[in-house]
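Each lists sequence, tokenised fold; shown next:
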Amino acid sequence: MSVGEAAAVDCASVRVRPDRSHDEYTEDGDTRLLVPPNQPESPELSVVIPALDEQSTIAEFVRWCHEGMTRAGVVGEVVIVDSSTDLTAERALAAGACVLRTPRAGLGRAYRDAIPYVRGRYILMGDADCTYDFRLLEPFVERFREGYEFVMGSRWKGSIEPGAMPRLHRYLGTPVTTWVLNRLYGSHFSDIHCGMRGITRNGLIVMELESDSWEYASEMVLKSVQMELRTVEVPVRFLKDRDGRVSHHRRAGWRSPWLAAWVNLRTMFVYGSDFFILKPGLIAFVVGLLITLPLAAGPITIGSISLSLYWMLIGMTLTIIGLQAFLLGCVAQLLFDYSGRARARWLSVFSYTRTMIVVALTACAGIACGVPLLLYYISHHGSLSLRASVQDGLGVIGLMLIAISFMLFAFTLVLHGAAIATRRSTGPKHADA
């Protein structure tokens, strides 16, 4: 069956949801859904697979999917998100898969493009190159039916055929990035880059994937933690490439795996930025205060070490940097808050009226602490010297308090504005209802 023939039958065989017009469902700009005949009316599972020039494996892969669904006793559909220039689309259609023709825009974008067109309650993802054995998809279906919302495959808990994974990926890339993500997000995944994974359709919609390329894999895993999806890992079988097939990483050149690792780490760090700044910032703030405040009354000598005005300036610097980092960490948590707890917590701690009162009192205290130093400056005709006196100490405290008051003022405005901009009316746990 050619692409043209498939386009001729898609109007008769596509199943349109009540909330969408037929034209909107089958065609959207450069995106077009091609549907072979005899598709199930109400599939429980949708196998959604991006494909780029996979004509050598696509037909067998689609047959594997249908065999796996038969074994699992699940009614399902196969949707190939295709941007190929070869015969991938024709062969997928002939094998019984729907084909969503899209512009070439990356793996993450392919899954976003597919959302309006898939009909299953559960979505199973993977690769079209027959490296993941979709004949063995039954564990995913079983976990979905048990109530899990995110079912992650694990090659480490399953099996890896000799020669299936480059040594760089197996012993460095995947273990290191998996360890980093687990440390940042407090998770316990064993294989965050496993391509065979499943998620409820509703979960994928609420997740709002932003990544266009390889980093979608990490974004999906870390957001499953942030969303508190009910998650489980299942073993998968990973096979080596068929003879004659060249992986996409190799097609892109030797830099491709390193660039993929870089963009994945970037995604982890951006979405988990509070890990680096919230608690470390709070620690720096407290340490800075412990250094600065005792020196306000004058120098302190501990053994042979004299702590004076210069130490006080170091303490003030730590205090301001630490507070700024902590406040940014609060905003970062709110930006990626799906449960609503971070939003409720920080709006409670930094309620507008109470915080503005603290800002005013802090600013007044800072000005009051700076008055003695200002009077000294005036009385000495604009001359100041670092004398490590009480006046100097109070002057440093005053400047620090004024800086803190302005930071709190600006932070409160940004926090409450971000809370409004990021408010989610429906959480992921209830959107299916």
Notes: The chain is about 50% helix and 15% strand. The radius of gyration is 29 Å. The chain has two domains: 3-271, 274-421.
